[in-house]
Amino acid sequence: MKVYELSAVAIREKVAAGEIKAREIVDYLLARIDEFDSEICAFVSVEYESARTRADEIDARVAAGDTVGRLLGVPIALKDNLCVRDGLTTCASKMLEDFRPPYSASVVEKLLAEGAIIIGKTNLDEFAMGSSTENSALKQTKNPWNKKCVPGGSSGGSAAAVAAGFAPLALGSDTGGSIRQPASYCGVVGMKPTYGAVSRYGLVAFGSSLDQIGPFARTVEDAALLLDVISGSDDRDSTSAKKKLPLTLDYNSDLTGLKVGLPSEYFNTDGLSEEVKDAVIAATEKLKDAGAEIKEVHLPMVKYAVGTYYIIATAEASSNLSRFDGVHYGHRCDKATDIIDLFSRSREEGFGDEVKRRIMLGNYVLSAGYYDAYYLRALKVRQRIAEDFDKAFSEVDVIASPAAPTTAFKIGEKTSDPLAMYLSDIYTISANLAGIPGVCVPCAQDSNGLPVGLQLLADNFKDDLLFKTSYVINNAENGVAF
Ligand code: GLN
Known about the structure:
The protein is α/β, with parallel strands linked by helices.
């Protein structure tokens, strides 16, 4: 097996056993990034020096007999909206082009404490707003399976980095599907944990009641291990759950007694490709073969999810992004004539079109006169969507659906039609509104050789059930794309 195909679990074992040096792994992956990332553009910045220095430190520790660390010597890529102290954290925006945070995200501290090596920061849609990584102000990430196609988004760079074999692990953030949808397009495992399971401290906020950080990996075990490392309560995030996720990290192919629900609403949607539908149904057959019982369930309110999401997420974004005014944070226009001009021109120059569109929408739905009609109503619908899931989870343990209505689309295909773009998250958004965990696991390839993803959803804090179930679909290493 080539170094770039090794799982995180395998790397950790080999490094701890002294079979391979962390430095060799890092050098190998950096060489692969050098060779191919000029085409894929998964990374916004690559940590050549610090990754090598840290690998040497780890090798020295191992040589001295210290093999502590569940991710010892394992390289990881981070979405560039996660703060790493003194490291560039751009959010793929001109607004933060040279921002170096004075602190690290809690998840970053946890990774470092377990011996992981940060290999670079990955591209995203600006401030995580998008579904294709085409809204990045910095570069266009390509899908490693077909460079004419998007990698999905907004965590497109992280998904592409794992699919291209640049790193065995990556972190992304998921506000409405930004981990699961790119995982689906890039043929890797991507998981959004239960809201509150992972601290958001040090994640640049988009929609604070929806945002969660989660893992990308090429195996289910690696994704589960990474989630185990980053989850847990944190006083620095008031929405962080007090209890730690119970993860067994030990999966097998027996699903006896498990009830899996197929929501009729998710299989009769306009725009669902026949190929994706067939592949997802075939995957649920595998669950049945492993002993699961398959049942139909109903989620009558999810048809309102996309509309509800675009009210709540934009409302929260308009508030969260108000700090980027050239004074508190972010790009500052140097030609301003007075303070109002400074705010408005700094924001005009720093933000891209989609971010501006969201801020305007958010301000609109929050403004006096529209607040009740839009924002308040959206909160009520959100509650009803959560109740749909509560009811479904009183009947089944896990819900299965497509992760996205199609496989990866062509670069440029949807850029002129924001609504068409928003609809690519139709299956993922409800989980964020309800706060429940969701995973996307590769289950097939379409006739063009592009990956198809199966989404599995479970009730709050049942994250482990998602790994247990997806292990049956995907219990081997997913090959890298090339
Ligand atoms: N695509 C969705 C959006 O543009 C979700 C983004 C995300 O999860 N960060 O809002």
